[in-house]
Design goal:
Elements (H helix, E strand, L loop, with lengths): L1 H15 L3 E6 L4 H4 L4 E3 L1 H10 L4 E5 L2 H10 L5 E3 L15 H14 L6 E6 L4 H9 L3 E3 L4 H11 L2 E5 L2 H10 L6 E4 L9 H6 L2 E4 L11 H10 L3 E5 L5 H6 L2 E2 L2 H9 L6 E5 L2 H10 L4 E4 L9 H4 L3 H12 L11 H16 L1
Parallel strand pairs: 1-2, 1-3, 3-4, 5-6, 5-7, 7-9, 8-9, 10-11, 10-12, 12-13
Helix pairs in contact: 1-15, 3-4, 4-16, 6-16
Bound molecules: 1,3-dihydroxyacetonephosphate and iron/sulfur cluster.
The site of 1,3-dihydroxyacetonephosphate has 12 residues, from helix 3.
Length: 347
C-alpha cells in the first residue's frame, strides 16, 4: 500500500541520516516530492547538489540532471537515479556526433575572425556540456539563459544555442535580438540556409520539448474566454507565440513563485508539465490553479519514470551496502563539463 511504502521510504531515510540527500525536480510525482529534502528547478537543484555534503545524492529527476549533479559534486559522493529510463527526449536531440558535424559546417561558413560561442541548455548530456566548455561556451538553464547569452556576446560574435530552439528564440526576444536568429536543422541538411546561418547572431539548434511544444495560442485564447480574470504563466520552452500571449514566462521556480505570491482568489492557468500544476494547486488551495490545456494532460514521460517503488528500492539497497543505478560521468568529460557548469554558476 502507499502507506506502507511511505513508511519504508521514511525509515530508510532516517537510517541513512546525514549520509543521504534526496533532491526532487518540480515535475516529479507527488509520491516523490513528498520525500524530497529539497524541491526545485534544475538550476536550484544543481546548486543544492554542489552544496550537499551527503555521501549519497538520490535524484528525483531525469538523467541529464543526475549527470550534472555527479559533475558538480565531489568525487567521493555518489549520485543515484532511481530509474535509468528517465531520459529527457530533448536532451537526446543534440548528440555529440551531430554537433561536431554542425560545428565544422558552421565554422567553415563564417570568416576566420568570427568567434562562435556555443551555449547548451542544461537539458543536454555531459558530452555536449564538455564540448561547449572546450569552445569557450557554457551551460544555462531557463532561469539564466539571458545572462549566458550576455556572457557569450561579451566574448564572441555569434551564439550557437542548443538544443531548445524555443528557449533560444524566447531569449533572443528578451535581449532584443529576435531579428538576428537562424535555425539549424541537423536532420534536414538540404533545408539549411547557410547564408542566413552565417549572417545571424544567434543560431538555434532545432530541438524542442515535446511537452511544452504542445501548448498553443488557442489554449490561451480558450482559457481567457472561459475565465474572465485568469492570468497565464508559462515555461519558456513553450513556442514564441505562447510566451508572447502569456502574462508571465519563466522557469519552474518562477512559476512556483508566481503562485506563492498570488492573492487568495486569483486564478492562474499554468503552461507547463501537469505534475507541477497539480502540486501548486495542492500547496496553494487559496489560489485557483488551472492547467492551461484543460483536460489534455501535458505529462512528461521521462519524469514519470521515477516511480516511488524504485525510490524505495534504491534507498533500501543502500542500507544493505549496495549502490544501484549510479550515474557517473567519465573523468575527462566531467572535468570539462564542470567548467561549463561553473561558468553558469558564476553568472
Ligand atoms: P526548469 O529549469 O525550469 O526546472 O526546467 C527543466 C525542464 O526540464 C523543463 O522542461
Ligand atoms: Fe525534457 Fe520536456 Fe520532460 Fe523537461 S518536460 S524533462 S524538457 S521532456
Amino acid at each position: 500500500s502507499e502507506e506502507e511504502r511511505t513508511e519504508r521510504i521514511e525509515a530508510a531515510k532516517a537510517e541513512l541520516g546525514d549520509d543521504l540527500v534526496v533532491l526532487g525536480h518540480n515535475y516529479q510525482r507527488r509520491e516523490i516530492v513528498d520525500h524530497a529534502d529539497f524541491i526545485g528547478d534544475s538550476y536550484q537543484l544543481s546548486k543544492r547538489a554542489a552544496e550537499a555534503d551527503a555521501e549519497y545524492v538520490v535524484f528525483g529527476g531525469v538523467t541529464f540532471m543526475a549527470e550534472s549533479a555527479d559533475i558538480i559534486t565531489d568525487d567521493d559522493q555518489t549520485v543515484i537515479l532511481p530509474s535509468m529510463e528517465a531520459s529527457c527526449p530533448m536532451a537526446g536531440m543534440a548528440e555529440a556526433l551531430q554537433v561536431d558535424a554542425a560545428w565544422a559546417e558552421l565554422t567553415a561558413a563564417v570568416d576566420d575572425d568570427t568567434d562562435i560561442i556555443p551555449i547548451t541548455y542544461m537539458n543536454s548530456y555531459a558530452d555536449l556540456k564538455a564540448f561547449c566548455a572546450e569552445q569557450g561556451g557554457l551551460v544555462c538553464t531557463s532561469s539564466n539563459a539571458h545572462k549566458a547569452f550576455e556572457y557569450a556576446f561579451e566574448r564572441g560574435d555569434k551564439v550557437l544555442f542548443l538544443p531548445d530552439k524555443h528557449l533560444g528564440e524566447n531569449t533572443a526576444h528578451r535581449l532584443g535580438m529576435a531579428d538576428s536568429t537562424a535555425e539549424w536543422d541537423p536532420w534536414d541538411p538540404e533545408s539549411k540556409d547557410t547564408e542566413a546561418v552565417a549572417d545571424a547572431d544567434i543560431v538555434l539548434w532545432d530541438g524542442y520539448c515535446q511537452v511544452h511544444e504542445r501548448f498553443t495560442e488557442d489554449h490561451i485564447e480558450t482559457i481567457r474566454e472561459e475565465h474572465d480574470d485568469v492570468q497565464v504563466v508559462v515555461h519558456p520552452e513553450c513556442r514564441r507565440e505562447v510566451v508572447e500571449a502569456a502574462d508571465i514566462a519563466g522557469s519552474t521556480s518562477t512559476i512556483c513563485e508566481t503562485i506563492e505570491n498570488a492573492d487568495p482568489g486569483e486564478t492562474w492557468a499554468i503552461g507547463t508539465e501537469i505534475h507541477l500544476t497539480n502540486h501548486l494547486q495542492r500547496w496553494h488551495p487559496e489560489v485557483n490553479v488551472l492547467p492551461l490545456c484543460g483536460d489534455a494532460c501535458m505529462d512528461c514521460n521521462a519524469m514519470r519514470q521515477i516511480d516511488p517503488n524504485y525510490l524505495t528500492w534504491v534507498l533500501e539497497e543502500l542500507i544493505e551496502g549496495r549502490e544501484r543505478n549510479v550515474i557517473e560521468v567519465e573523468p575527462r568529460e566531467k572535468e570539462l563539463a564542470e567548467l561549463a557548469l561553473e561558468r553558469m554558476l558564476e553568472i
